[in-house]
UniProtKB/TrEMBL annotation:
<keyword id="KW-0342">GTP-binding</keyword>
<dbReference type="InterPro" id="IPR006073">
    <property type="entry name" value="GTP-bd"/>
</dbReference>
<dbReference type="GO" id="GO:0005739">
    <property type="term" value="C:mitochondrion"/>
</dbReference>
<dbReference type="GO" id="GO:0003924">
    <property type="term" value="F:GTPase activity"/>
</dbReference>
<feature type="domain" description="OBG-type G">
    <location>
        <begin position="318"/>
        <end position="567"/>
    </location>
</feature>
<dbReference type="InterPro" id="IPR027417">
    <property type="entry name" value="P-loop_NTPase"/>
</dbReference>
<dbReference type="GO" id="GO:0005525">
    <property type="term" value="F:GTP binding"/>
</dbReference>
<dbReference type="InterPro" id="IPR006169">
    <property type="entry name" value="GTP1_OBG_dom"/>
</dbReference>
<dbReference type="InterPro" id="IPR045086">
    <property type="entry name" value="OBG_GTPase"/>
</dbReference>
<feature type="domain" description="Obg">
    <location>
        <begin position="70"/>
        <end position="317"/>
    </location>
</feature>
<dbReference type="Pfam" id="PF01926">
    <property type="entry name" value="MMR_HSR1"/>
</dbReference>
<dbReference type="InterPro" id="IPR036726">
    <property type="entry name" value="GTP1_OBG_dom_sf"/>
</dbReference>
<dbReference type="InterPro" id="IPR031167">
    <property type="entry name" value="G_OBG"/>
</dbReference>
<dbReference type="GO" id="GO:0042254">
    <property type="term" value="P:ribosome biogenesis"/>
</dbReference>
<keyword id="KW-0547">Nucleotide-binding</keyword>
<dbReference type="Pfam" id="PF01018">
    <property type="entry name" value="GTP1_OBG"/>
</dbReference>
<feature type="region of interest" description="Disordered">
    <location>
        <begin position="33"/>
        <end position="68"/>
    </location>
</feature>
């Protein structure tokens, strides 16, 4: 250990000199030089860098698939509890020259109800909380001031959500307020149970608790209170057994304002469907005023709200559902049909799409669809487009880039039709199309994404098969798709109307005559298979349309056919 003595520098080291000497001995300080060069690792080969990037994306995709998706939820169980009612008040009126006034304790407010409301602004159940508890009502006060009722709690869910109440014997169902109270009273003596039950249900005027429990007025009120509570519990149990909650929220709730409604009156907003009622407020001591009991010194607490466990299942309401094997080009097709507005991830490996994505196809009167006049002509892999976008931004190309509406001025036809909001003027028909995760063999047995994928197709009135025409035998994949749909739900494959043979550009190669003939033969074999084995119940075969979603080729015919199928399905409804 070094001991430093601070003294004058005459004859011995002072503290400052000693510290400087010790510092020089302990540390070897090298002078800083700006001429030193830090060795950087050698630059990676672009092909190697792209391969590593693709490998990272694939690992991320595999991890998400094992987790069942991150941002999309199509099945969730929630516990809903109505708000507790406010407590009543035990008080007496006091004012000048009135030392002993009448009872003035008011009732408590009602607890908040819980509603469930479908909204078109949501596409997933991930925003729905797992536990919902409405606000409690306000307590009553003296001077006959009743407590304020709590506002309702609205659970917003996407359109297409199916709500089911779990049965009473389901272990996933949460206990109701009475079962929870019985569990908390286990192991107590009869006297302790009576005390705790009274504390939960009654309020006493200060200093009058012991007197109240011995009076006949209180005992009669307690017996009546337990009788009403028992009737309420029996009615709740009968409703859960005979009329459980079953809701199919496939339509948006809209309240039309009356034409002759007076000005200045606030329009009533839709609340949806009631699923859990709030508890009623407790009674103040004025409620127990009788001719015999002129000064009741007790009040009741608010009742607990209803407790219920709901199972929410989302079934997308898309007009067209794309069905295909992994890496068949469904995401690229959706991006091409929507002009790049649908943000789906495109990559060269399987299970790129883990969650259903819904896009909107807008069509004009002359058959022009918005995606054909907007967006890019080539839809490449997502990481390549992001890399190209970052490069353009770094080089400053986007500083003077034209907006969508400015680009519409470059061509006379685009000037007429326009893009974005300008297309609203010419739009006469629109339909939604859903890109679903890839379907593999034995998906009906919950392999791959299994039921979570097939569930999203149940609501689509028309299905479109998407096959990879560059595969060795695309008709075999088509057979697997049809069989899996039938295994999951008999008759589901009869809703298929179209077969899109995607990736036709990969068959052309360099355009030699031999390659073109082979491509035509493969397409002819696919058409023969569809005409022989893919017959609809009315005798019509499925249409086969070869396309190249990457280069947006031959999509006009596909859009026209899908538009006709959607019109036919809507007229049938």
């Amino acid at each position: 250990m070094l001991t430093i003595q601070i003294a004058n520098c005459s004859g011995r080291l002072c503290g400052r000199q000693f510290l400087a000497t010790a510092f020089r001995r302990s540390y070897h300080i090298q002078p800083f030089s700006t001429s030193r060069v830090v060795q950087q690792p050698p630059p990676k080969d672009p092909a190697q860098k792209a391969e590593e990037e693709a490998r990272k994306r694939q690992r991320k995709s595999e991890w998400k698939r094992k987790q069942g998706g991150q941002t999309f939820l199509d099945h969730v169980i929630i516990t809903v509890r109505g708000g507790k009612g406010g407590d009543g008040c035990a008080a007496f009126h006091r004012e000048k020259f009135v030392p002993y006034g009448p009872p003035s304790g008011a009732n408590g407010g009602r607890g908040g109800d819980v509603y469930i409301l479908p909204t078109p602004h949501l596409t997933t159940l991930s925003s729905v909380p797992k536990k919902v508890i409405a606000d409690a009502g306000k307590n009553g006060q003296g001077s006959w001031l009743n407590g304020k009722n709590a506002p309702p709690f609205v659970i917003r869910v996407p359109l297409g959500t199916i709500v089911r109440e779990l049965p009473i014997d389901d272990p996933r169902r949460a206990k109701d307020e009475w079962a929870a109270e019985e569990e908390s009273l286990e192991g107590l003596s009869s006297e302790d149970r009576r005390v705790k039950m009274r504390e939960k249900r009654w309020l006493h005027y200060p200093g009058a608790g012991d007197q109240n429990v011995a009076r006949d007025f209180f005992l009669d009120a307690e017996a009546t209170h337990y009788k009403l509570e028992r009737e309420r519990r029996i009615a709740r149990r009968r409703r859960a057994l005979e009329e459980p909650i079953r809701l199919d929220l496939d339509k948006e709730e809209i309240i039309e304002r009356p034409v002759d409604a007076p000005l200045g009156i606030k329009q009533k907003e839709p609340l949806g469907h009631l699923v859990a009622a709030g508890g009623t407020g407790g009674y103040g001591n004025t409620h127990f005023l009788t001719k015999e009991n002129r000064s009741p010194k007790f009040a009741t607490r608010g009742n607990e709200g209803e407790r219920i466990t709901l199972e929410l299942e989302l079934k997308l309401l898309a007009d067209i559902g794309l069905v295909g094997m992994p890496n068949a080009g469904k995401s690229t097709l959706l991006r091409a049909l929507t002009g790049g507005r649908a943000k789906t991830e495109v990559a060269g490996y399987a299970f790129t799409t883990l969650n259903p994505v819904v896009g909107i196809v807008r069509v004009a009167e002359d058959g022009t669809w918005e995606g054909s006049i907007s967006g890019s002509e080539v839809h490449d892999e997502t990481w390549l487009e992001e890399q190209e976008e970052a490069k353009r931004m770094q080089e400053g190309e986007l500083a003077y880039a034209l907006t969508r509406n400015q680009q519409a001025m470059d061509d006379e036809y685009l000037l007429k039709m326009g893009k974005g909001h300008h297309f609203d003027i010419y739009e006469t028909f629109r339909f939604t199309i859903a890109d679903n995760p890839g379907l593999i063999s034995e998906a009906s047995e919950d392999r791959g994404l299994g039921h979570s994928f097939l569930r999203s197709l149940e609501r689509s009135p028309a299905l479109v098969y998407v096959v990879d025409l560059s595969a060795p035998a695309p008709w075999e994949g088509l057979r697997v798709l049809r069989e899996e749909l039938e295994k999951y739900q008999p008759g589901m494959s009869t809703r298929a109307r179209l077969v899109i043979a995607n990736k036709a550009d990969l068959l052309a190669g360099e355009g030699s005559e031999t390659v073109v003939i082979e491509a035509r033969n493969k397409l002819r074999q696919l058409e023969d298979f569809v005409q022989q084995e893919m017959i609809l119940p009315d005798g019509r075969p499925l249409a086969v349309v070869p396309t190249s979603a990457k280069y947006s080729q031959n999509l006009d015919r596909a859009v026209a056919l899908m538009q006709g199928y959607v019109k036919e399905a809507r007229e049938a409804q």
